[in-house]
Amino acid sequence: MIKYVLTDIEGTTTDIAFVHKVLFPYAYEKLPDFIRGHLEDIAVQQCLEEVKQTILEEKKMVADVERCIEQLLVWIETDRKHPALKYLQGLIWEEGYKNNSFKGHIYPDVVPQIKTWRSKGIGIGIYSSGSVGAQKLLFGYSDYGDLNYLFDHNFDTNIGHKKEVGSYQNIANHLALPPQQILFLSDVEAELDAAELAGYHTMQLVRAGTPTSKKHTTVINFHQISFL
């Protein structure tokens, strides 16, 4: 019996184009001036130290602020899941959401179905490569208003990477639930594979442009998900 639904964001609750054509370009454009304008902020300083350390380890170079900015822009282009970049993007996106530069995109089938599950006592959580802060911004400033009240937990890569079995074991332990009572929703087959190996039930959301898995149950929207 399913007692908890864990969902991905990109390509699952949210059009992947919103992330790649709205959020990433916005961060790319604003990041240089944001960093230069917040050099006194402790959080930004800590992020820059993490970037410098990575550059030193990977490129054997001592980086200044401008070199860090250059590297961060490259990481945005390549969608690297570096924790410092994710944190900085969250800060930049927060400004964008608050000044109404954009709203968080949510597919229209998502909210009604989650509300139905909650009314039946099903727990709901998010697991995304985007930081918890970025997750809460997207759902907090969505096309449908603040939706964060719908979610019991938010998980990001601090609990483990999404294609690793151990990440899903860690989440099940955190929830104090047997993996067999958790349903994981994602558009990415490799993530579903890892969740299944951890003992989860899985379903793939096949939105426009998503390659269809031959190993997992597939649905085209949240309305088609049935487990009650």
Task: Please summarize what this structure is.
The protein is an alpha/beta fold and 228 residues long. Helices cover 48% and strands 11% of the residues.
Question: Mind telling me the C-alpha Rg?
Answer: 18 Å
Let me know the number of strands.
6
CA-based shape: globular
Share in helix: 40-55%
User: What do we call the CATH homologous superfamily of the largest domain?
Assistant: HAD superfamily/HAD-like
Secondary-structure element pattern, one letter each: EHHHHHEHEHEHEE
At CATH's second level, what is the architecture of the largest domain? 3-Layer(aba) Sandwich
End-to-end CA span: 8 Å
The CATH first-level class of the largest domain comes to Alpha Beta
Structural class category: alpha/beta
Predict the CATH topology of the largest domain: Rossmann fold
Question: Which strand order do you get reading across the main beta sheet?
Answer: 3-2-1-4-5-6
Q: Please mark out the parts with pLDDT under 50 across 5 or more consecutive residues, or reply none.
A: none
Biggest sheet descriptor: 6 strands, parallel
Strand content: 5-15%
What is the domain tally? Answer: 2
Arithmetic mean pLDDT: 97
* Annotation field: number of helices: 8
Search tags:
single chain; 6 strands; 2 domains; Transcription Termination Factor Rho, Rna-binding Domain, Chain A, Domain 1; 228 residues; six-stranded parallel beta sheet; alpha/beta; Rossmann fold; 8 helices
List the helices and strands and how they pair.
Layout: E1 4-7, H1 16-37, H2 42-59, H3 65-78, H4 83-98, H5 110-119, E2 123-127, H6 132-140, E3 153-155, H7 165-175, E4 182-186, H8 189-197, E5 201-205, E6 217-219
